[in-house]
Structure formats: structure tokens, C-alpha cells
Records
---
Amino acid sequence: MVSPDRPLLRTLQGEAVWPPPIWLMRQAGRYLPEYKVTRATAGQFLDLCLSPDHAVEVTLQPLRRYAFDGSIMFSDILMVPHGLGQTVWFAEGEGPKLLPVRTDEALAALDLAGFHQRVGPVYDIVRRLRSQIPGTTTLIGFAGAPWTVATYMIEGGSSRSYETTKSLMWQNPDWFQRLIDLIVETTVAYLSAQVSAGADVLQLFDSWASALGGPAFDRWVIDPNRRIVKALKAQHPTVPVICFPRAAGVQYQRFADQVPCAGLSLDPTVPLDWARDTLGPKCLQGNLDPILLVAGGEALMTEVRRIGDAMRGHPFVFNLGHGILPNTPLDHVAALVAEVRSW
Ligand code: 1CP
């Protein structure tokens, strides 16, 4: 049964709930021994993402240990390129690989018509989670933001400098705009279908937002996020969207002014007093350094309390400033959750 009292949802609707709700980005994953067991039986990483039995199981694993207030469906931002028919695979120990999209022909071959069918299991996963998570837990759907997804689609995997992506973006902005527009349209349809399947809240991950500045940040980070959030708000007015233009620095302010999202996720470099005063009316989420959660001890607790002191009285979601790291000790996570819940 879904309870009306979901602290994470209430917070994103603007209430300064205290103690703040807590969940962790990438809370399912390799720091959990039980994840490694399921991962080993599921086959390829993409098979894990597209197998409802396994994906539901790994989504529930961190909830069983830590009773987080939010449950993020287990999936990956590369589900959108996969759904568009781009060839995506995960090379063991190397990360994601894709057959790059760099030409008119490759762009024309992407196929929105077959999208929902290719990602169909994701909607099944959300539906099953809706009925299996505790009633007070908020179910989070997600997607990558267009700029970040485009870097993977063009580079063919992870990148340090995004050299091919940026070169194409500046040499052929019309082509790049067509790719971004396709990702915007697909992402709206994808997230909307996640809501129809039962997601309470959505998060857009723009993990590589800090690669752009000036007008390029406005055009390729702010504008696509704004269009997606506006379209989702029109279709699902009560569903809050959290945006995460990671490491965008002072550009967080321009982003906040122009993107009508309910929540902003902050990376560890964002000063919280500045965020509270300038990004203000929005609910803020973050921003513990994931390496502090690996380090543990007094340093961890001092920082966790500093974050709490800065954000008390404001709608705030306790989270990391980026995904949890595989080396994170389980008892550090338990100590973090106990500390936040003691406030
Ligand atoms: O070996 C394994 O088990 C695969 C590791 C892994 C996992 C656990 C990958 C490959 N993706 C995931 C799951 C995942 N990815 C989630 C799970 C839900 C949860 O939080 O429990 C989420 C939200 C993502 C989102 C994601 N994937 C992002 C955005 C968030 C972020 O961390 O910046 C990005 C950039 C990706 C791409 C990706 N997928 C996987 C890897 C190793 C990467 C990053 C590669 C890179 O650094 O470029």
C-alpha cells in the first residue's frame, strides 16, 4: 500500500521535513555483496537492467539493509541509446561501449518508434517495485540528461575530454541540435512512461554538465533540461523532477533560474549557504563527498553534521554529491543513516 506519508515526496513538494529524508545515488551496486551475487547470475550488465526479476531484486537490496526513504529503480542512463536502437554493451572492467553515432546516416538510423518496446522491461520493473517497496518509500525513476547521454552516444563510451562530441557540436551545431532534440523527445516519453508505471519522483542526471560553459552551457545543458522538465510538468503536474547539473559551479544559479525543476542535486563543491540563499526556493539534495563515506570515522561524522546544520529548516534531501563508490564499507553507510535519523 502506498502511504500518503512519504517523507522524500513531501520534501520535494516543498516541506522542510526533519530529520531530512535520505537516499544515496547508486545505492544499489558493487559495494553490496548481495549485488555482486545477483550480478554474477544475471549475465551481462544490460541483461541485469532488462531482467525484471534481477533488477527488482538489486533495487530492493539497499532498502533491506538501510531502509532508505527513496528507492531508485535499478537501470542505467544508457537505456535511452539502447532503446533508440544504438548498439550498447558493457565491457567487463572497462565500462559502457557503444557503436558511435557521428554521421547523418547513423542519426537517421536511430529509431524512436521501437523505443518503448526495447525498454519495455524497465516499465515492468517500475510497476513491480511500486507494489514491493514499503508504502512510505518514494519510488524514483530516472534518465540521463541529453548532453551527458549525447557524449556517450558520440564518443562510443566514457571520455575524459569529450573531444569528438565538442568538435561535432561546434562544427555542425545543426546536426548536434537534431541529436539533442531526439534525446529530449525520447527522454520525455521514457520518463512519462515511468510515471505511468508508478514512479513518484524523477531525476535527470547531467553528470558531465561541467564540460560546458557560457552559451554552450545554456544551449546544451540548460535548454534541454528545461524542455524536458516543462513537458513532464505539463503531463504530470504533481510529480517532482530533480535535476543534477553536476559540478556546474556558479552556473548552478543560471540553471536554477531557468529550469522549473522541484529539486536540485548538488555536487560536493557547492557551498551550502550559497546554495540555500541563491538556489533557495528549490528543494536541495546532496552533497556529501562519496570518498568521505569510504574514509569514515570522525571526518565523516563532522561533515555529515555540518551539512545538517547548514540545511536545517530548508526542504532538503540528504544524499551524496555523486554515486557511492564500490569500496564503501557497509558499516560506514549504516553509521551515516543512523546519524541523519538521530537529528
Ligand atoms: O559492473 C557493474 O555492476 C556495472 C556498474 C554500473 C552500475 C551499478 C553501471 C555501469 N551502471 C550502474 C547502475 C546505475 N547507473 C544506476 C543505478 C541505480 C542506483 O542508484 O542504485 C544509476 C542511477 C546509473 C546512472 C548512470 N550511469 C550515470 C549517471 C550518474 C553518475 O554516476 O554520474 C552515468 C554517467 C552512467 C554511465 C555508466 N554506467 C556504468 C558505468 C560504469 C558508467 C559510468 C562510466 C563513466 O564514468 O563514464
---
Amino acid sequence: MRVVVFISGRGSNLQALLEHQENYTISHVICNHKQAAGLNIAKNHGVATTIIPWRDAKSAEAQTLALLKKINPDLIVLAGFMRLLSAEFVANFPFKIINIHPSLLPLYPGLNTHQRVLDDRQSIHGATVHFVNQNLDQGHSISQCHINVTTEDSAETLAARLLSKEHKLLTATVDHIATGQIYWQNNHLYFNNQAINQPIVWSDI
Ligand code: GRF
């Protein structure tokens, strides 16, 4: 399975994906910031990179689409990609774009999820891998992982604790899509050939 990863910055989720390529291959990384640390991670793994500044979203998407038509990926993974994709762009890849988001969607779409969880005195937090549609963080959820929130937590400790779980969640999800254990069919998410109504939660993540 050929995977293209979109990033904007640090690239720790990209790194985790690169280290677990067994059933999939990351063939290209697209990034909207030329200084993103994640670009070096891709280069160190010998993966081709393309920088597409997103100053004008329309032309950036046109450029990205032309590139993707050449690569013809099976899956596009948004891993810390901080730009919104238009409905027109997303329509080219139905149920072929996934995103990792640091909250238990549908709770806390958007930014500053960790602080919002603390402000609301939630006792459970987590991350979600979901399909990308035209609405921010609202595509169908695929998988989730959870962490407990303690009274000592800050936004920083929550972010750090969740990040290591995000890496496992994203790699497990991409791997299961690659092996055909997760797929979308007839308006349903399937896991091991069974239609499921809740996101997948792996006990060891
Ligand atoms: C992660 O927390 C991810 O959930 C969010 O952006 C962050 C990206 O981190 N969408 P990295 O660039 O993968 O290190």
C-alpha cells in the first residue's frame, strides 16, 4: 500500500509511521513549511519530499492534486498537517484521507484540545484517527486511544503523554488499513469483516 503523508512541523507521527513500514510504504511527504523538522526525518529515511507553501490555498491544492495524480497513493495521512483541505479537494479521495487528532472526537475538534480538556475538568482524554471530509475534524472516526487526566496534569504533560500513544494508534490504524482489516464499505466502517458503530480501541494502546 502506497502512503503519502502530509505534515506541517515536528513530524513525530511521521517518524513512527516510517519506523513501522512493513505492510505499507511511505512514498512521499508533502509539507507546507520549508523549515519543518519533519522534512529532515523524511530525508533521513530516503523519502521524497515536496514543499508546497499554503499561502494561497487554491493554488496549493491544485499543485498538490497534480502531484498526487502522479503518485497515485492508496492512502493519504494527515499527521500534524495544519491546513484545512477544501471540499473539492477531499472529494477526489473519498475515504482515502485520514487524520490524527488529539482528542476523543466528537469532543474538542479544532485547536488547544489539551487545555480545553483541563478547563472542563475531564477525567479522560485521548486521540482519534478519523476519515477526513470537508468539515474540520468531523469525518467518521476509525480508532481511539485514551489516557487518564490527573489533577497534576498541565496541557504540556497531557500532550506529551498522549503523543506516545498517538504514534501507536496511527501506525496500528494505517497498518490495519494496509492489511485490509479496516475498510469502509456501504456507508459503514468494517473491522475484521464486521461492520462496527464505535471507533476501534486496542487494549494495548
Ligand atoms: C499531533 O498531536 C497530532 O495529533 C496533531 O498534531 C500533532 C502533530 O505532531 N494533529 P507531530 O508533528 O506528528 O510530531
